[in-house]
């Protein structure tokens, strides 16, 4: 028998994690519960666009994998449209020369890859596919309402000791052990890690596999901007958005309107010049917990809630409309230069991680040049680019917009993921980023936290941390 639903739930953060949590909590707890989403910045968080000459471009989370089923479902349920991420040709620059260049002919490309790296790229594709196959089990578990109390248990249920092992070893160790050559790792794998996570092959093997999956075809984005999913989910869940920066969370005993005392969480937040607070039965924290990013203090918890010190990688996205100085990368002049993305090898002398032509959030086709002064290029770098650096990259440019981020965890295996259950009815979503940071990972964490909160509220421990779920659900068919 189910207990009466909670009266009020707070979610801190209106990024994809917080807004999908609102959506799944509404599904589980029904229409009567009041859901407040507290956000101190913009709805969308790390899903954000910037405007270049009147057009919007993704500056944060931009591409979505075709097998990211939560994101797919949100887009469908919210009636949004999608755009395909434009392919274009990719090259890899090592600071002196292009060590690899894609060809527009499929066969030619295959021959080039085999010539350079033997069958390593095919083996890599198979390695990623095997991991994705296991990863996809999460959708089955979640559709049957199963939840996990820790990131490690969730990953173990998907890929057993192999997945936990990937969290504890570097991608480099994992792939060397699997027999990949140094040349392939340096010229293909390391550049993919640099464009996606701004880090070397010393990240954990799991996030390495997630990052390599971006080489698959069929990547897509939301027409109008990925952040539209967040505002759509807030609306669909009929949550109440509160503009405010959460300062403290404290457990207190309150007398409910039934006259009974109950343990609740007091959430104190700054809204403009005012400090306000409210009481909640359940709280979900959907932002990375550290001083630099959220600065939330947990007051008077016994035992105290641990301090989180996870270091997030500083990355700068720069969008520039201009004419590329192609001679920086090759001897060919711009009219003969057909690459639209240039990745870089792990060379500390380079001041960029990658540079590529991007489409605006409304373009559904190949990117178009904006007027006569070239395409819009997206550059990822560790530091803010100086004018001199921009002038090295471009023959001319007429607009540059820079967006710095604390983007994703600085991965340093072995990873110890933060707890999901911080206290009795206080949950933390972003611990999942220690395995891999991506929109879909936040959506998975949100669904899991909503199920976990629901089962724990109703005392349904049988739905939490079930072992051998894969086998159990197979025989259930
Ligand atoms: C440059 C870049 C490129 C990326 N590219 C991709 C990609 O192509 N594909 C992909 O899948 N992922 C990508 N990612 C990762 C993806 O964007 C993130 O994993 C995801 O958006 C995280 O969502 P979240 O809701 O968990 O966190 P966030 O989006 O960070 O949301 C947390 C929210 O909480 C708010 N907040 C923080 N503290 C407080 C407080 N005290 N009180 C109230 N509100 C607070 C913040 O303002 C923020 O809005 C990229 C990230 C970056 C930075
Ligand atoms: C979670 C799974 C199985 C797959 C997600 C794959 C994916 C889309 C990962 C995103 C990785 C990431 C942080 C990319 C950042 S850069 C993206 C893009 N190259 C750009 O130019 O913006």
Short description:
The protein has 477 residues and is of the alpha/beta class. It contains 13 helices and 21 strands. The strands form five sheets. Strands 7-6-16-17-18-15-19 form a seven-stranded mixed sheet. Strands 9-2-1-13-21-20 form a six-stranded mixed sheet, covered by helices on one side. It has a four-stranded mixed sheet with strand order 12-11-10-14, with no helix packed on it.
What would you note in describing this structure?
This protein has 477 residues and is of the alpha/beta class. 32% of the residues lie in helices and 26% in strands. The protein has 13 helices and 21 strands. It has helices at residues 16-29, 69-77, 106-117, 120-135, 137-143, 151-168, 171-177, 182-197, 205-212, 227-236, 387-393, 439-457, 469-476; strands at 8-12, 34-39, 49-52, 55-58, 82-84, 89-93, 98-101, 220-222, 240-243, 245-255, 261-271, 274-280, 282-285, 297-299, 312-324, 339-344, 354-357, 376-381, 394-409, 421-423, 426-428. It has a seven-stranded mixed beta sheet. A hairpin with a 2-residue loop joins strand 3 (49-52) and strand 4. The longest helix has 19 residues, at 439-457. It starts with 7 loop residues before the first strand and ends with a helix. The model has no long low-confidence stretch (mean pLDDT 95). Ligand LLCL4O7M binds next to helix 4, helix 8, helix 9 and helix 12.
Total helices: the number is 13
Bound molecules: flavin-adenine dinucleotide, the ligand CC(C)=CCC/C(C)=C/CC/C(C)=C/CSC[C@H](N)C(=O)O
Silhouette: globular
**Strand percent estimate:** 25-35%
Order of neighbouring strands in the sheet with most strands: 7-6-16-17-18-15-19
Which structural class should the secondary elements be placed in?
alpha/beta
What is the mean predicted local confidence, pLDDT?
A: 95
Q: What is the distance, rounded to the nearest whole angstrom, between the alpha carbons of the first and last residues?
A: 26 Å
Q: Tell me the Rg in angstroms.
A: 23 Å
Q: Spans with pLDDT under 50 lasting ≥5 residues?
A: none
Instruction: State the share of residues found in helices, binned by percent.
Output: 25-40%
- Give the biggest beta sheet: 7 strands, mixed
């Amino acid at each position: 028998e189910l207990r009466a639903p909670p009266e009020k739930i707070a979610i801190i953060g209106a990024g994809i994690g917080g807004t999908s949590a609102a959506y799944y909590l509404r599904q589980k707890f029904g229409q009567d519960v009041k859901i407040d989403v507290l956000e101190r910045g913009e709805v969308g968080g790390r899903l954000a666009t910037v405007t270049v000459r009147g057009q919007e471009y993704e500056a944060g989370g931009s591409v979505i994998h075709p097998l990211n089923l939560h994101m797919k479902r949100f887009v469908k349920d919210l009636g949004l449209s999608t755009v395909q991420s434009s392919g274009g040709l990719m090259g890899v620059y090592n600071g002196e020369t292009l060590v690899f260049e894609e060809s527009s002919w499929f066969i030619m490309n295959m021959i080039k890859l085999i010539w350079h790296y033997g069958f390593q790229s095919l083996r890599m594709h198979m390695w990623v596919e095997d991991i994705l196959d296991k990863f996809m089990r999460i959708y089955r578990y979640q559709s049957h309402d199963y939840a996990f109390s820790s990131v490690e248990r969730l990953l173990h249920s998907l890929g057993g000791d192999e997945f936990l092992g990937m969290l504890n070893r570097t991608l480099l160790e994992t792939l060397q052990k699997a027999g990949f050559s140094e040349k392939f790792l340096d010229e293909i794998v390391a550049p993919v890690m640099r464009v996606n996570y701004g880090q070397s092959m010393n990240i954990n093997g799991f996030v390495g596999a997630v990052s390599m999956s971006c080489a698959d075809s069929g990547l897509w984005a939301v027409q109008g901007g990925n952040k539209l999913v967040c505002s759509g989910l807030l609306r669909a869940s009929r949550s109440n958005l509160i503009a405010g920066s959460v300062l403290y969370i404290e457990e207190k005993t309150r007398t409910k309107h039934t006259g009974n005392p109950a343990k609740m969480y007091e959430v104190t937040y700054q809204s403009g010049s005012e400090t306000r607070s409210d009481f909640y039965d359940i709280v979900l924290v959907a932002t990375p917990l550290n001083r630099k990013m959220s600065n939330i203090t947990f007051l008077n918890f016994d035992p105290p809630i641990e301090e989180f010190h996870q270091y997030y990688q500083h990355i700068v996205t720069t969008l520039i409309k201009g004419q590329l100085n192609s001679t920086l990368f090759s001897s060919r002049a711009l009219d003969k230069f057909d690459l639209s993305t240039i990745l870089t090898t792990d060379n500390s002398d380079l001041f960029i991680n990658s540079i590529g032509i991007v489409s605006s959030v409304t373009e559904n086709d190949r990117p178009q040049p904006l007027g006569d002064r070239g395409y819009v290029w997206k550059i990822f770098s560790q530091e803010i680019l100086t004018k001199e650096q921009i002038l090295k990259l471009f023959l001319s440019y007429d607009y540059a917009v820079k967006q710095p981020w604390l983007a994703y965890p600085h991965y340093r295996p072995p990873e110890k993921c933060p707890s999901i259950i911080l206290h009795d009815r206080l949950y933390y979503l972003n611990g999942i980023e220690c395995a891999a940071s991506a929109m879909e990972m936040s959506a998975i964490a949100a669904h899991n936290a909503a199920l976990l909160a629901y089962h724990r509220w109703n005392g349904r421990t049988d739905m939490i941390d079930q072992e051998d779920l894969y086998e159990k659900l197979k025989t259930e068919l």
